[in-house]
Amino acid sequence: MPAYLQNIAGSGRSSRKSPVAQAPIISGMVPCNVIADEILTDHPDRYRAMLVESANPVHSLADSNRMREALRSLELVVVIDIAMTETARAADYVLPASTQYEKWEATFFNFEFPENYFHLRKPLFEPLGDSLSEAEIHCRLLEASGDMPLALIDELREILKREGRAAFRDRFMAAMSEDGMIAKLAPVILYRTLGEVLPEGAAEGAVLWPLTLNFALRDSDSLARAGYEGDPNEQADKLFDAIIAGHSGITFSKDDMQTVWSRLGNEGCIQLVIPTLLEELQVLEAGPVDRANTEFPFALSAGERRD
């Protein structure tokens, strides 16, 4: 279990259900093949609009024709993507995003041991045409809707300019404790404040700042072994600055096996039991199902890896 900057999946535990199909919402995600069922109904809580970002459900999900019908029945569909996909063609509005070569970008699928690495990639080219980074698109949508806390942003800009990052951190944390919505808007607020003063126009990297702080509070020893000394706040600032400046990637943690075992929690076990999956596995006890069909005498299995 290596150290991580961002938990990309969460615990998975949730009692939430989708409004129509009552499908379990796992790690904040609705099972993709019930999306059409959540739309093509007269249920009062059916989905009425969708914002689709960097995804192509009309092409990628089961029953493309039904998904296309579902999107066309929505009151509003907005797509943010780098390409004019099948889903984009079914949308009311398409907001063109710049490619990974034209914006600051990173991946959080980094699970190296004993040293773990992170790479904030610098853009190679200027954005093509009127395309924008997703971060800029998100900000402009919030600003146009009137939901951006402009007064707080002005205050944070002034604090950052006159008093520095430590005072900025204190005011930002206080604002989140005072208003839960500020925490939800944190990425765009940081983009419009801290992001504006980062070197080389690395505004998209501002969202990494709270991640480095959370990591320092959670795994200070791992950071120290990787060379980031000081209290958690000092470690976080050093790590953040290193990420922004390290165009070839940086080492953000260094662990030993004892540290890995400590991440298993109080029970000291890896949780493999997933009740929902066990229920599905019980179906196999009845034996193989005869799927022979003279009209379609073959089985298509797609999306599997065999390496």
Describe this structure in words.
Helices cover 38% and strands 8% of the residues. The model has no long low-confidence stretch (mean pLDDT 90). It has 307 residues and is mainly alpha-helical. The longest helix has 14 residues. The strands form two sheets. It has a three-stranded parallel beta sheet with strand order 1-2-3. A two-stranded antiparallel ribbon has the order 4-5. Helix 5 packs across helix 9 and helix 6 packs antiparallel against helix 7. The protein has 14 helices and five strands.
Compact summary:
With 307 residues, the protein is mostly helical. It has 14 helices and five strands. α5 crosses α9 (186-192) and α6 runs antiparallel to α7.
Number of strands: 5
Total of helices: 14
- What is the overall pLDDT average? 90
Q: What helical percentage do the residues reach? A: 25-40%
Distance between the termini: 23 Å
Shape: globular
Strand order of the largest sheet: 1-2-3
Give the topology string: H per helix, E per strand: HEHHEHEEHHHHHHHHEHH
Q: Extract low-pLDDT stretches.
A: none
**Mind summarizing the main beta sheet?**
3 strands, parallel
Structural class: mainly alpha
Strand content: 5-15%
Q: Give me the Rg, rounded.
A: 23 Å
